[in-house]
């Protein structure tokens, strides 16, 4: 498959320390959880999902004109044709989040994609792969339009990956990921702190098991070791914490985030959630209200179609991997050779196996999970 020339890494089968989703090796931080979880949930309950999509359209498409006095029936929704690539980014923006996560005024115009994940659905819908990108990855960022749409900004070498959002918004993050992976990414979304918090509250919390206590004033989270059900602000703290786990790096934090997403995906796809209309609708509304979606996703029926496609993929056929790289001080330099091998497998929809993940960095798998 043709790929753009770039020397800042290309995806790989190497570093993949995260095994199959069977072991709660999931994916993101404010965002990851949303990607898989959101899509799986919005349409997994048939008529309830269809109604939710129809009703929530009034929020997503608030500026459209209704010429039928709101009498149009809910749409007929089916899965997508072929494969798809969906990018989800977790923004550190405090806009609209209150002062719980810092002073919103200090963050205006300074958004970063602190969590970025690419979800690849195979052509035959039999498997999916989620690639997690370290925020501290140094990349050759392509030229982008400024976030406010007023300027064309030149490409930059060895640019921090998480600066892409600040430079050119979601569109620039997508272009950067397309350059890194060689994959076209037609769908994307940005989620903030309240989005993840809202989804976990809708399903009644997410269970995790901590190998060691987490005590991090910066992320405002203090939890003892053992099994815990994360809800509310503890969810945000758990996904943000660096100093509470491992060596305090973003690489260590990614492991925590992946464990969380695995647990979230299981909770979302459980019978207790999918057969509960209130929970399904609550998740759908949390997604719509606290995410900024690409125009390709501004129709809830499209989201529902993606969800219907995802819901039939078994959890043990979802592979979570991390974009490969080498440490360089506090930054990460792409491992281009490994990235190329990995992307070749992902592009070919290959069913590759990864080294077992022991959920290092202070987190172990929740009881009942397969090792």
Automatic annotation (TrEMBL):
Pfam families named in the record: LytR_cpsA_psr
Record-linked InterPro entries: LytR/CpsA/Psr_CW_biosynth (IPR050922), LytR_CpsA_psr (IPR004474)
Protein name: LytR family transcriptional regulator
Residues in Cell envelope-related transcriptional attenuator domain copies: 112-268
Similarity annotation: Belongs to the LytR/CpsA/Psr (LCP) family.
């Amino acid at each position: 498959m043709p790929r753009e020339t770039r020397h800042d890494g290309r995806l790989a089968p190497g570093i993949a320390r995260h095994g199959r989703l069977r072991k709660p090796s999931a994916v993101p931080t404010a965002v990851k959880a949303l990607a898989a979880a959101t899509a799986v949930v919005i349409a997994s309950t048939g008529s309830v999902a269809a109604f939710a999509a129809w009703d929530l359209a009034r929020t997503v498409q608030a500026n459209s004109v209704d010429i039928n006095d709101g009498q149009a029936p809910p749409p007929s929704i089916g899965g997508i044709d072929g494969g798809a690539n969906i990018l989800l980014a977790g923004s550190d923006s405090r806009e609209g989040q209150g002062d719980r996560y810092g002073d919103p005024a200090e963050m205006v115009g300074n958004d970063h994609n602190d969590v970025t994940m690419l979800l690849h659905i195979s052509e035959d819908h039999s498997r999916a792969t989620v690639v997690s990108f370290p925020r501290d990855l140094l990349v050759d960022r392509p030229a982008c339009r400024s976030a406010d749409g007023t300027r064309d900004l030149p490409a930059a070498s060895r640019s921090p990956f998480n600066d892409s959002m600040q430079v050119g918004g979601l569109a620039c993050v997508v272009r950067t990921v397309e350059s890194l992976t060689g994959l076209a990414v037609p769908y994307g979304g940005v989620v903030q702190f309240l989005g993840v918090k809202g989804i976990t509250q809708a399903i009644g919390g997410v269970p995790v098991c901590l190998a060691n206590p987490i005590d991090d004033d910066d992320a405002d989270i203090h939890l003892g070791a053992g099994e815990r059900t994360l809800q509310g602000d503890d969810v945000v703290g758990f996904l943000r914490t660096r100093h509470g786990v491992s060596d305090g790096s973003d690489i260590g934090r990614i492991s925590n985030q992946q464990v969380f997403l695995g647990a979230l995906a299981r909770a979302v796809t459980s019978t207790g959630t999918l057969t509960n209309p209130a929970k399904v609708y609550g998740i759908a509304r949390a997604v719509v209200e606290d995410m900024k979606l690409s125009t390709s996703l501004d129709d809830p029926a499209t989201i529902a179609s993606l969800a219907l496609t995802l819901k039939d993929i078994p959890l043990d056929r979802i592979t979570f991997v991390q974009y490969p790289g080498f440490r360089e001080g506090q930054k990460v330099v792409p491992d281009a050779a490994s990235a190329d091998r990995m992307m070749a497998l992902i592009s070919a929809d290959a069913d590759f196996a990864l080294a077992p993940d022991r959920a290092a960095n202070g987190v172990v798998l929740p009881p009942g999970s397969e090792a």
